[in-house]
Automatic annotation (TrEMBL):
Its cofactor is FMN. It comes from Rheinheimera tangshanensis. GO terms for molecular function: FMN binding; oxidoreductase activity. Keywords: Flavoprotein, FMN. Residues 5-145 form the NADPH-dependent FMN reductase-like domain. The keyword Flavoprotein applies. One of its GO terms (cellular component) is cytosol. Coiled coil: none annotated. This is NAD(P)H-dependent oxidoreductase.
Amino acid sequence: MSGLKVLALCGSLRAKSTNKALVEYAIAHAPKGMQIELADLTDVPFYNSDIATKPVAVEQLLAQCAQADAFLLACPEYNYSIAPALKNALDWASREPNNALMAGKVAAIMGSGGGMGTSRAQYHLRQVCVFLDLHLVNKPEVFCNAFANTFDADNTLTDERIQSLIVQQLDALQQLALRFKN
Ligand SMILES: Cc1cc2nc3c(=O)[nH]c(=O)nc-3n(C[C@H](O)[C@H](O)[C@H](O)COP(=O)(O)O)c2cc1C
């Protein structure tokens, strides 16, 4: 398949985010025909229906969602659940008429955190994705322990098992997109 546009949404906003590092690895190792872009969620405010004029950061996020064929969701685990920046981005996107920015698109989830590899948060996120009508890659799951010499001092992903899982997951995302095309 050629020209699959993937928008990555990362639930951690910090500069040295290990979840962002997973996305950066994915960007650098995307299969032929897939382009991955990371959304900047730094200035996206909490969703509030009283906000009459959408801030620039929100407009930009929604435009990127509209252009995306697929999503890559980098899911940190905060207190056993989804980090608010990621959920908030999905909440904004979901409020467009008929959920048109997300419905029927494909997505993959990866995450970096403690020993459970964000699995608890990822399974909450899977539930959210049911309502968003996203079609998720089931396998492989990318559960990354951030505290096991997984990243080097420059915050680059060095764990070969996780590297391989990411490559396999991107391939699965591409295959899934192909199945859902038309
Ligand atoms: C508010 C908060 C809650 C957290 N709760 C969990 C948790 O439930 N499970 C877990 O594995 N890690 C938890 N952590 C640790 C994060 O996994 C860790 O900070 C991780 O590096 C965050 O991802 P990042 O590197 O992309 O910022 C928590 C961190 C914060 C700030």
